Amino acid sequence: MDSVTVRVPAKVNLQLAVGPLRDDGYHDLVNVFHAVSIFDEVTAVAETGMSVRVEGESADQVPENDDNLAIQAAVALARHAGRSYGVSLAIRKAIPVAGGMAGGSADAAAALVACNELWGLGLPVEDLMEIAADLGSDVPFALLGGTAVGTGRGERLTPLEVGGRFHWVLALADGGLSTAKVYGECDRVRAEGGEQVAAPRTSEALLAALRAGDAKALGAELANDLEPAALSLRGSLARTLDAGRAHGALGSLVSGSGPTCAFLAESEAHAAALAAALTEAGVARDVLTAHGPVPGPTVV
């Protein structure tokens, strides 16, 4: 096989509960991931060395060297297999860069699937999940897709039952937000306010809304403990969130560490109308519609 192309979705966080800062610098999380229909494509071509090139959405902000998480995934897979392999990776971006939608993690997951296929390794998904967890907290879910709750750093996953399709509007912001800076700001804001941070817990009401396919109930339960920190670092996001609520979103939140804002709509038609209203309001660089859940990486 000379080349393999894998399509991989973005994610939004339906609930992101952040526990106290741990001694190792991480936080215990309850992270309800939901894969949505915005896709990157990663094409792997057999080569003697390791290389990556990037095109598409904000491609100039993505490293084309060893700092690229997709290349790190390919290197880790070759090391796991105990062989010297080479690959040229071509990434076509549609997922926002540094937008809180796990675009880099998605590309790493796609690289694992593509290289496993290209190199004929035949490794089971359990092995790929183990490698994914070492690459980053969001990579295991990017490999899984669908909807799942993650605990620990977010890498220990339990798939969730979802009773229907949900429709989303995603408001993209100019520039990204550093995940590390947002977590640091979260810790700072909590310490400044003297907040006693409890261990994170999954919202049972949110899980029930997912099972029932009840968009209105789900909208009421969307929650992100990082949102105050993201708003502190990027105050303009408050105007975006307010605009979505004013135009009838069932629920809204900053996705992950931001700065993308996610709005839940009643239907596909409502999502289109809400996207048009947000575009008219001028509160985002771009506005996209999507649905979820969708499957994880798929060979195309």
UniProtKB/TrEMBL annotation:
Key word Cell membrane present: no
EC code(s) of this entry: 2.7.1.148
Keywords associated with the record: ATP-binding, Isoprene biosynthesis, Kinase, Nucleotide-binding, Transferase
Catalytic activity: 4-CDP-2-C-methyl-D-erythritol + ATP = 4-CDP-2-C-methyl-D-erythritol 2-phosphate + ADP + H(+)
Residues of the GHMP kinase C-terminal domain: 206-283
Residues that coordinate or bind ATP: P96, V97, A98, G99, G100, M101, A102, G103, G104, S105, A106
Broad enzyme group: transferase
Cross-referenced Pfam families: GHMP_kinases_C, GHMP_kinases_N
Active site: K11, D138
InterPro entries: GHMP_kinase_C_dom, GHMP_kinase_C_sf, GHMP_kinase_N_dom, IspE, Ribosomal_Su5_D2-typ_SF, Ribsml_uS5_D2-typ_fold_subgr
GO function terms (MF aspect): 4-(cytidine 5'-diphospho)-2-C-methyl-D-erythritol kinase activity; ATP binding
Pathway annotation from the record: Isoprenoid biosynthesis; isopentenyl diphosphate biosynthesis via DXP pathway; isopentenyl diphosphate from 1-deoxy-D-xylulose 5-phosphate: step 3/6
Residue span(s) of domain GHMP kinase N-terminal: 68-146
UniProt record, GO biological process: isopentenyl diphosphate biosynthetic process, methylerythritol 4-phosphate pathway; terpenoid biosynthetic process
Role description: Catalyzes the phosphorylation of the position 2 hydroxy group of 4-diphosphocytidyl-2C-methyl-D-erythritol.
Record family assignment: Belongs to the GHMP kinase family. IspE subfamily.
Protein name: 4-diphosphocytidyl-2-C-methyl-D-erythritol kinase
Protein source organism: Planomonospora venezuelensis
